[in-house]
Specification:
alpha+beta, three-stranded antiparallel sheet, 6 helices, 17% strand
C-alpha cells in the first residue's frame, strides 16, 4: 500500500527547461542524487521520451506520473521504460464494480481495445448529465446547476461521484502501476 511506504529519504527538486527538452542535465542530476522515486508531471509524449532516456541512463526507480499517462499512446510510446511507474488513474482498469466491469467488457468488445480513462470519464459525464436533467425536470441552466450541485454518491463507473455547490467533483482515485505495458490496479484513495 502507498501509505505504508513512509517518507522518502532523499528529496530534491529540479526543473526541465522547456526550450531544451532533450537536455540530459536533469537526468544526470537525478542519477547522481539517487532518489527513491521521481515525480514527472510532463505531457504524455515528453514523459515517454524522458522515461526512455532515464532508463537508458540506468535510473531504475519508480516514476510518479499524471493521469494522462493512462492513455494507450503513452503506454505504446514509453514501452518497457514505463514499467514500475505509478499514476493516479481516471478509471479502474477491469472495473471496480459490476458496472465498471460491464463498461470495460462492452467497450473492449466494440473497440477491440481496453477502455481508456477518458472514455470512462466521458461515459460518466453523459450519464450524470442525463440524471441531472431528469432530476431537474428541465434543461434550464439554473435548474440543471442546482440538480448537479445536489449530486451525492452518484454511482459512476469511475466510482461514486459527488458534486458540491461550487461544482467541484469528488470521487475516488485509483492508484495504478504500469507493468508489462498494462495498467494494474494497486489501491483506491477515497476523498
Amino acid at each position: 500500500r502507498i501509505s505504508e511506504l513512509g517518507r522518502p529519504r532523499n528529496f530534491f527538486r529540479s526543473v526541465v527547461d522547456d526550450r531544451h527538452p532533450d537536455d540530459m542535465r536533469v537526468i544526470a542530476e537525478v542519477k547522481r542524487k539517487s532518489p527513491d522515486v521521481v515525480y514527472l508531471p510532463a505531457p504524455v509524449g515528453e514523459a515517454a521520451e524522458i522515461l526512455k532516456r532515464a532508463r537508458q541512463a540506468g535510473i531504475a526507480v519508480p516514476f510518479l506520473g499524471t493521469a494522462s499517462w493512462d492513455s494507450p499512446e503513452f503506454l505504446e510510446t514509453a514501452g518497457e521504460a514505463a514499467n514500475g511507474c505509478y499514476i493516479p488513474g481516471r478509471f479502474h482498469p477491469g472495473g471496480a464494480d459490476d458496472a465498471g466491469k460491464n463498461f470495460e467488457a462492452k467497450y473492449s468488445m466494440r473497440h477491440n481495445k481496453p477502455a481508456a480513462g477518458l472514455a470512462a470519464l466521458g461515459f460518466d459525464a453523459v450519464v450524470l448529465l442525463r440524471n441531472a436533467i431528469t432530476r431537474a425536470g428541465s434543461t434550464d441552466s439554473a435548474a440543471l446547476r442546482k440538480a448537479l450541485a445536489e449530486t451525492s454518491q452518484f454511482p459512476g463507473i469511475t466510482g461514486p461521484i459527488t458534486v458540491d455547490p461550487e461544482m467541484a467533483v469528488t470521487k475516488p482515485v485509483p492508484v495504478l502501476k504500469i507493468e508489462g505495458g498494462r495498467l494494474v490496479f494497486i489501491e483506491e484513495l477515497r476523498p
